[in-house]
Amino acid sequence: MGHDKKIKGSVTKGIRFSENEISRINFCVKTGDYISFSDFVRFATRRQIELENNDGQGR
Length: 59
What we know:
By secondary structure, the protein is mainly α. The chain has one domain. The chain is 46% helix and 0% strand. The chain has two helices and no strands. The chain has helices spanning 19-28, 37-53. The longest helix has 17 residues, at 37-53. It is globular.
């Protein structure tokens, strides 16, 4: 059941995400706008860099 979760606009097609990643992405794109795959990749890459740069820093 969980593996069928999709980000609006089906940008997850061909990419596997964990439940945590999906919920985080859904939260970040919760405006409900459709986003293009390239925008999503750019967002995900930037987000990953932020997570790595902020490693060890809480909210």
